[in-house]
Amino acid sequence: MRLLIRMSTFTHPVCWSKLRLTQTRTLWLDHRPSLSASLRRRTLSISPGLPGPLVSVLTRRSTISLHTHTPVASAASTAAGSVKSQEDSDRALTRSSVPVEDVRRITSLARPERWRLAAAMGFLTVSSAVTMSAPFFLGRVIDTIYTSGADTETMTSSLTSLCLMLTGVFLCGGAANAARVYLMQISGQQIVRNLRTSVFSSILQQEVAFFDKNRTGELINRLSADTAVVGRSITDNLSDGLRAVAQAAAGVSMMFYVSPSLASFVLMIVPPMAGLAVVYGRYLRSISKCTQEALAQATQLAEERISNMRTVRAFGKELSEVEAYTQKADDVLHLARKEAVMRAGFFGITGLSGNIMILSVLYKGGLLMASQHMTVGELSSFLMYTFWVGISIAGLSSFYSELMKGFGAGARLWELLDRKPEFPLNEGLVLPSDQLKGQLEFCNVSFAYPTRIEAPIFQDLSVTVPAGSIMAVVGSSGSGKSTLVSLLLRLYDPDAGIITIDGHNIRDLNPYWLRSHIGTVSQEPVLFSCSVRENIAYGAVDPSAVTTEEVYQAARVANAYDFVQAFPKGFDTVVGEKGVLLSGGQKQRIAIARALLKNPKILLLDEATSALDAENEFLVQEALERLMEGRTVVIIAHRLSTIKNADAVAVIDQRCVAECGHPTELLANRQGLFRKLMEKQAFLQEEQQQVLQ
Ligand SMILES: Nc1ncnc2c1ncn2[C@@H]1O[C@H](COP(=O)(O)OP(=O)(O)OP(=O)(O)O)[C@@H](O)[C@H]1O
């Protein structure tokens, strides 16, 4: 049975959730609510977007926003063919209006944080007021210096009091700004955290077929990048946007207040320049997006190859992989060159236009000063306001696109959050556990995988496994042995027919309850990248309640105790990515200990194959036999010894159970399918070797 997909060892919550998502089948077999608690403990901190100086605001913001897609996530998203989500983003960016429902949902996310956000807005008003009044008062300071004439004493005293007053005001402004940043950050993180846990919980509720259709990278992207984008839209973007609007309005008003004639002159120059900067900035952003996508593809290639390094090495593909990566890196470079040309032009033009604007203000302002219509302090204030208005207009242009991006990301999240799983995980009949006997029955089951409905796996398949017996399932590769196990676990539902446990249709049973009574050990068991102790305790309903002695006892019965104790850190040894620090047989025995701790009534086993050496095979076999005692066992058998010890063998062929009976009876039939299969798989040779020994 192939339950294993991919594992990674990261402590970053996003990587952690990736780890869990790539092992969804394992979680389904052993689902527990503590997962969301674990996720809570690992909630990510996101660094805030920083406001940039006048000229670089447009470009820098576009870069920041694109980088919020973590390399892994965006790589996966792009290469995973997440056309839909990309389309969504593009649509969100290009559409001119936003559905009211989207606005309502985004606002509802902020509701729990409303008081903190309201306080942040209050501090924002204070700090913006201080910022916008600073040029005016600084102009006063300059005028005090220049206009007090020879009276040094008067100048000193008014300068001192003015500066002291301004220091107090600036202190208040600084404190208000610090409080605003802190509150916005905390609110943003809280919103992202809530959103992430809801999305992760919604993903884990989905039926397994959902994971066949949706790629891990795409889901991780939603969990990491989309949640961050939505969180930022509500907090940073909103506050930056409001501040930009307020500062632009206040700046223009103050420019008119300080010098109406100079303000009218400047406002004739600003709009065409700002328009040019916005258009250029948009174009630059689209090129920069292509560069990021090319980078994502390169990163995806690197991620996949590095995480499968053993395969790369085993096939000696290091050089060709480097070549493939170089190709991708060249694509990035090619686009980056285009971007560099655009960027150079953008910075050149904006720098030039900024300087020309200042020069124009100085020229016109100088003329006004010469005609006694303006003081030096007023001209200084005016220049500072011009600067602030420039920054605010640049900020506004990115505010709109960031907000649209937030709506696009939100739409993808709602889709996931609103999705109802095909069958809810915690509904249905719960039988008294002590009365469970464990008789299994497949009655006329027909099934095709939802992703391949045109290729039925079973047609009218029927078989019974009496309580407490061992049923070996055999059949050629691809005949559907693992599928049988998946159906028993209710990872999928049959299209027709029923599967029963003690006469109860498993569709009527509570899936949590059902799975809590079924243990699984797969051929390549999935271990999480935590300690041996945690991996074993994972089998229990409440791992935190498992005592050390219980873990040791399970390990002893599973023949795992001695080798684990021999590790320098014993049971606290971290098993590494994909359990890489353990051998195949050791992983098997840890998985057996995990299943023992679960103490299930029904056991589904995929027997380890010849990958194990003789000693390991013996130890695993011995542990499995102990595990099987007193339980109903369905075992996908690969060894004759296992098949011979089974109470019955079911041979799957042509989408149904072609033969079923005691192994000796079936072997006796020379024309029988089982006999032929055994001969083909050289099981008989194995038996002859045993006889010779
Ligand atoms: N999730 C899936 N979606 C679509 N088809 C699948 C899925 N899993 C398995 N299949 C297909 O179903 C068929 C039966 O697969 P299954 O893994 O049950 O066979 P098996 O008898 O266990 O094979 P093996 O002995 O090689 O492990 C195969 O043709 C396989 O390609």
TrEMBL record:
Q: Where is this chain primarily localised?
A: mitochondrion
- Chain segments annotated as transmembrane: 115-138, 158-183, 265-283, 344-363, 383-403
> What SMART domains is this protein classified in?
AAA
Organism superkingdom: Eukaryota
- Where is this protein localized, as stated in its record? Mitochondrion inner membrane
PROSITE patterns with a match to the protein in the record = ABC_TM1F (PS50929), ABC_TRANSPORTER_1 (PS00211), ABC_TRANSPORTER_2 (PS50893)
Q: Which reaction does it catalyse?
A: biliverdin IXalpha(in) + ATP + H2O = biliverdin IXalpha(out) + ADP + phosphate + H(+)
Keywords, comma-separated and alphabetical: Acetylation, ATP-binding, Glutathionylation, Magnesium, Membrane, Metal-binding, Mitochondrion, Mitochondrion inner membrane, Nucleotide-binding, Transit peptide, Translocase, Transmembrane, Transmembrane helix, Transport
Q: Does the keyword Ion transport apply?
A: no
Matching entries from Pfam families are given as: ABC_membrane, ABC_tran
Q: Which residues are in the ABC transporter domain?
A: 440-679
GO molecular function terms attached to this record: ABC-type oligopeptide transporter activity; ATP binding; ATP hydrolysis activity; identical protein binding; metal ion binding
Domain called ABC transmembrane type-1: residue spans: 118-405
GO CC, sorted alphabetically, is:
mitochondrial inner membrane
Membrane topology of the entry: Multi-pass membrane protein
Question: What's any GO biological process attached to this entry?
Answer: oligopeptide export from mitochondrion
InterPro entries documented for this protein: AAA+_ATPase, ABC1_TM_dom, ABC1_TM_sf, ABC_transporter-like_ATP-bd, ABC_transporter-like_CS, P-loop_NTPase, Type_1_exporter
Tell me the function of this protein. ATP-dependent transporter located in the mitochondrial inner membrane that catalyzes the export of biliverdin from the mitochondrial matrix, and plays a crucial role in hemoglobin synthesis and antioxidative stress. Participates in the early step of the heme biosynthetic process during insertion of iron into protoporphyrin IX (PPIX). Involved in the stabilization of the iron transporter mitoferrin-1/SLC25A37. In addition may be involved in mitochondrial unfolded protein response (UPRmt) signaling pathway, although ABCB10 probably does not participate in peptide export from mitochondria.
- Family of the protein in this entry: Belongs to the ABC transporter superfamily. ABCB family. Mitochondrial peptide exporter (TC 3.A.1.212) subfamily.
Q: What is this protein called?
A: ATP-binding cassette sub-family B member 10, mitochondrial
Upper lineage ranks?
Answer: Eukaryota, Metazoa, Chordata, Craniata, Vertebrata
